[in-house]
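Quick sanity check, Lipoprotein:
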Amino acid sequence: MIINMNKLIVVFLSFIILSGCMSMTPEERRAYNLTLTDYQVCEKLIINTNSPLELRQEWMTEAQRRDVDCNEYAATINAVRALDKLHN
C-alpha cells in the first residue's frame, strides 16, 4: 500500500508540475529555458520523456541553440536518478 501511495504522489506531483509549465506562454517558457544550465536542459530532456511534445521540442531547440551534446550528461543524470530511487 505504501508503494502504491508513493507512486500516486509522484504522479500527482508530476501532473502539478507539468500543468504549471504549460500555464506559461511559449515566450515565457523560452525565457525560462534561457536561465537553465546546459545540464538542466539535458536533464529535462532525459528525465521528462512523457512531457508534452511542445515542451520537449522547446528543450530540444534550446539544446540545439547552445550546441549541447546531452550524451555528455546522460550518465550523470541517470546515476543521480538511480540514487534518488534508492533513497525513496
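Posting the structure with no commentary besides this: The chain has one domain: 24-87.
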